[in-house]
Amino acid sequence: MANARAIPVSLHDPQEPARQDPDWKAFLDLGFRPLYIAGCAWAAVSILIWIFAPQWLSGPLHGVAWHAHEMLWGFVATIAIGFLLTASATWTGFNPLKGIPLAMACVLWMVARAGYLAGSVPAFYVAAAAESLLFLLSAVVLLKVMLKGKSKRNYGVPFLVLGLGLANCLFLHSARAGDYLILMQHFELGLICMAVIALLVARRVVPFFAMRAIPGLSIPMLTRSGQVQLVLSVTAIALGLAGQPVVMAAALAVTGLISLYQTIRWKPQAVIHKPILWILYLGYAAMGVGLLFAAGHLAGWGTGVLQRSAVYVHLIGMAGFSILIIGMVTRTALGHLGRPLQLDRSMVVSYWLVIFAVVLRLAALAPTAAMQALLHASATAWSLAFALYLWRFVPMLIRPRL
Description:
Blueprint: H1 24-27, H2 32-52, H3 63-92, H4 99-118, H5 121-148, H6 157-177, H7 180-213, H8 223-241, H9 245-265, H10 275-298, H11 309-336, H12 345-363, H13 371-397
Helix pairs in contact: 2-3, 2-13, 3-5, 3-6, 3-7, 3-11, 4-5, 5-6, 6-7, 7-8, 7-10, 7-11, 8-9, 9-10, 10-11, 11-12, 12-13
């Protein structure tokens, strides 16, 4: 989809001033700086542990439970919180978390990651407490600035973050009890809760980014369909809690269809030559497809490999969240750092590596002789993608805005 010849070689403006020194105060000025680094680094490392060193995963949170937890709450939710802490400062005019409090939030995040890996019961409880505090802190500071800035359209965001934290507590409780069936139900609840946040944010920023990047492009914000989408997705969560999978499936199906309708209305043909945009369109559309597959699974449709929950989980989690994330951590970081909104070849390569990893992982769901090789190749491509992001962006994220 991208025209490589049209991609600038450098992210740096020719008129850019001399290279600045790293600055601790600037690093802790907005939530995206440390949390983008933390989330992307953990994305690269945790998947390597899961695929190449699963023997390290013992204790109360082990095996596939650890992998599912760390992908959703350790990686995706971390990036989401980093984005929301930063975006809310723009929405309200008040920075919700910076300096020492932001540093302490990052310490809570690190304690959680280390505690779950340690393998002991006390470490598990310490990690769970630290992680719960992080979600609670994030929700409280977000609510505070929303109220202070009278950002009424965003009053629900802190409660979605709180819901994500609650789903995490339920998941951890099930993991400690050893109840795999209930554990996966709570994981699915957290996945849908995260999808609500992702859809809410992306529906607002994707058309805005597109119109800013392409002169003369006019696309609708689709506020009304977004409101219906939000109501239906929140209803789906409530139905899931109430144990009504069939009705929940109907709500998810309509939510997914609305996502695809919105993507088409945003004139995707106009952004094919802009990798920094089409990556966001692709992730948003993939989220819609994933929700449709989730609906089909809950309704009992499909045969063979399509009956597995892993299909829609990876469609939403990898094809949806992760493709959106690699685009968002690029676009929003450049914007907030005062950099030109242009990509170098390394970042376009990272986009294709994430897409390649998604395709390989979905192919590995089929029970074939190549399954193990596909898993290894997917994990390698995935980790290389986020390593490329860190290599390119960490030097900028630890320095003051231009």
